[in-house]
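CORE FACILITY INTAKE
Project code: CF-77B
Contact: R.S. (postdoc)
Sample description: multi-component assembly, four entities in total
Requested service: structural model of the whole complex
Turnaround: standard
Below are the sequence entries exactly as provided by the requester. Do not edit them.
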Amino acid sequence: MSGMTVGFVGLGAMGQGMAANLVKAGHTVRVWNRSPEPVAAMVARGALAADGLADVFAADAVVSMLANDTAVERLLLDPALLEAATAGTHVNMATVSVALAERAEALHAEYGIGYVAAPVLGRPPVAEAGELNILAAGSAESLAAVEPLFAAMGRRVWHFGERPGQANTAKISTNFLLACAIESMAEACSLAEANGVRPTDLIEMLSGTLFPGPVYSGYGSMVAERRYEPAGFKLPLGLKDVDLALSAGAAARVPLPFGSVLRDAFLDALAHGDGEKDWAAVAAVARRRAGLPE
Amino acid sequence: MSGMTVGFVGLGAMGQGMAANLVKAGHTVRVWNRSPEPVAAMVARGALAADGLADVFAADAVVSMLANDTAVERLLLDPALLEAATAGTHVNMATVSVALAERAEALHAEYGIGYVAAPVLGRPPVAEAGELNILAAGSAESLAAVEPLFAAMGRRVWHFGERPGQANTAKISTNFLLACAIESMAEACSLAEANGVRPTDLIEMLSGTLFPGPVYSGYGSMVAERRYEPAGFKLPLGLKDVDLALSAGAAARVPLPFGSVLRDAFLDALAHGDGEKDWAAVAAVARRRAGLPE
Amino acid sequence: MSGMTVGFVGLGAMGQGMAANLVKAGHTVRVWNRSPEPVAAMVARGALAADGLADVFAADAVVSMLANDTAVERLLLDPALLEAATAGTHVNMATVSVALAERAEALHAEYGIGYVAAPVLGRPPVAEAGELNILAAGSAESLAAVEPLFAAMGRRVWHFGERPGQANTAKISTNFLLACAIESMAEACSLAEANGVRPTDLIEMLSGTLFPGPVYSGYGSMVAERRYEPAGFKLPLGLKDVDLALSAGAAARVPLPFGSVLRDAFLDALAHGDGEKDWAAVAAVARRRAGLPE
Amino acid sequence: MSGMTVGFVGLGAMGQGMAANLVKAGHTVRVWNRSPEPVAAMVARGALAADGLADVFAADAVVSMLANDTAVERLLLDPALLEAATAGTHVNMATVSVALAERAEALHAEYGIGYVAAPVLGRPPVAEAGELNILAAGSAESLAAVEPLFAAMGRRVWHFGERPGQANTAKISTNFLLACAIESMAEACSLAEANGVRPTDLIEMLSGTLFPGPVYSGYGSMVAERRYEPAGFKLPLGLKDVDLALSAGAAARVPLPFGSVLRDAFLDALAHGDGEKDWAAVAAVARRRAGLPE
């Protein structure tokens, strides 16, 4: 099979690894980024520098991996851009709100472009390795069109339905569960320590018994050892994700009491200057509540 | 090595499996239970029927596996019983409060008996298979004395320190994390469903990616499928465990906001008649809050 | 002193009473409203119909009383309108966000118009009687300019500072306290009833002892009698106010745990179809949590 | 009408004022207290020193005003004492649990003694002035028997039913509302201050408008001025009262989300060493959460 021509927008740490894997798989990839440095880096890895966003959208498909709703709205939900586009499908792989997905779906439909939401699980090294888990939703036709791209970037695609917002909901729910796990361990470790149990002993036992897997051992260690730097995922991004869950909840009238506790805890952390730390630093809030030393 | 003589109190579903493994390992096990039927069952499996609690405490070591603090206090924290005892060590393997552990430790010390707290992780089939995870704390000497018993009952011993209450703290923290995981998934599944995502799809993806292991797949399925019966662990026991965490927290001045949400959710479930269901039925509360059909 | 010419935007139930009092006090009042009926009603009471918003802003001062942030942004934060305006001062008496107040203050300053925030306490009959409590903030000069208008509309002006947002903060904090009082009584009445105490007895005692005043007796009776209709203030508006508090809190990194509980409770109420009822209907959520009959 | 003979147990700051008013009203009052000093003080004011608790219960009626459940259980729920008693009625005016009221009611009934629960609203100066609000429940006959005593001690009696526990429920609900009001103001003042509004300005406006009465002005000032000493009512007593509400809620399956937030906030305050301060010091927790200076 000959490769596709793919426009790629958003060369952050995640985007670079993803675009590189599209190149490796034999696709012709035209990349665009707000700042020029990552473009040069990608050109060195075999991509072409797009001549503006219109050039990105003059491809078989567009993949975007932007930071948040605001960036997507400002750059991509542009009627002029979409009207001129020849791309058949736009795959938005960023973690954005359900509301944005719904707006984007409608707007793309208006201009005859398929819109797929495909947020991913995995950090930059996983993106680089082409081993992302891809949570996808969109029409069967659009999904089929971008299946070769998914194959290049991910280890598995998880399907959630025909409406793009479903994939965003799944991603938001996953991040919500991550935040819940971190706060749970933060409270448990404070409880343990204040009652004379070493948090590291607790976490070692937990991840060796009921809670295997990367979340409880990885975040558990960070919480137990109070190791919040370097940040793998910064605290304000964690608050953003909790807010995405709360917003999706509010729109559908779903109270999320754990989500509310999380929001208050993240605000508390930010009020104490932990905005540059990993979101595991929400554990410092649990310690402070209990009067445990920082 | 020749076996020990072991007194065993408390032949519930867990206790029977545990006592049977002590018998199999070659120990002489004298069992006692409030109701007589399980005693007969254990005698059929090679144990001896103890002639009252005093007889249980006339052994090398005593293992107890009673339902809760009240049962332990009433039956075992009896000065007359302890004064007459010849047992060198008492291993309390039940999930009880930190406060009880502290009282028991002091009282046993008064009568020269070693006291070990060794609550376990695992359901009855795991106890029967001798594959329990044992969370243990007590003096080095006492722990060494009962090591052969642990070897017969468990797959691994996790050590938490020299004060028995440390093991109870670890167990209470573990159960707290279980309850948090259930509530987290309950909220996430309500959020997902109200936004058009099938909860079973969500749980399948989660347990196939970030959250492997028995908790997220097992309880996740129960939550996603609203399958709360038959109860593996009844809701009021779940509330008891949350209350143990809150009490241990209060004693050490550790606020547990997730714990507070859990307590309210379990009360809500009980107020709606779900006391005979599995504690996963707390998910029905999350659904009700969101107006989702039962 | 001869009267001022006043442009008035927003003739809802509150605005009509307020504008009428400006007319009575001898001011020349030019009114504008999105729908025409209230304009006719006000003309019958002595006001003049403005010929569009530009005409409203061709006055000594402008008073606006619109429904929410969106209406203010769309109608009044219009550079063309403000550029052409001859009004020296704009008094925004609506309950809007702190963020909007800050944007409005900056934009008005750009065009040399004083901006005063002056949200009010009181329902329509109080507005009609000219007995509102006015919470005001703005520059001393701007406040002095509109003092005669305040005198016509209110019983007292409470000053909060020179930055308009301060008055909005005070109003938002007040509404937050109202919502807290309602939820507090809702929980207390459920606790009382489930323990055999008539909620009406409880509320009668409370308002006759520690909690005099309109809030505990008025909302208390509604809660105790489960009388949520007719709505004096609809539930979605209550949620809007709680969200204003949470947003002002998030912007300044102030966690509000009671606010978070309120948000969840209001969402629960909306999920159960109580959107047309008074916000006192949040008490139905407290009853439902406890399994008390509707 | 000639006076009654009254046994009085518990001469704390409240009890002294109450007993003195019984003396003033012409009753013969035999007082007992664990420590002797207050007895001497009351004798100087016209009371008689009782010769032990049996002597207290050899009266027409007994009034008790002890610190908590534990004191009542240890001193008064004594079968030997009640069996020998000639008193027709025992009025327990302390703030105790609903569960204790139920046990006490049953035990007194067994010995043919009427049991009335009559907790009060008011601080020591109010008790001294005979101006307490008395929340009463018990059989009509028992209430009638002690009516002259209420007349001497209180300004008004509020009736809640025939089961003593009803009055305790009403008192517990009232204290719960007080705690809610304090936390509400704590959050509102933090919100205000972080957004540039002086908390004292906010509280002055609130108590001059929607929230008149002693709670919002009194506690409001303490919160706004961060004046937590001297303590009128110490923080651990506040936590005790919140726990009474939560326990009464748990027994009747009534979740109290505000109560849960309160409990966590009081624990946080105690973890930070504020146990000797007034319960208004829970406001320091709200400030700390927001990173505001102590």
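Facility notes:
- The beta strands of chain C are 5-9, 28-32, 48-49, 61-64, 89-92, 114-117, 120-121, 132-136, 154-159.
- DSSP finds 14 helices and nine strands in chain C.
Invoice: internal transfer
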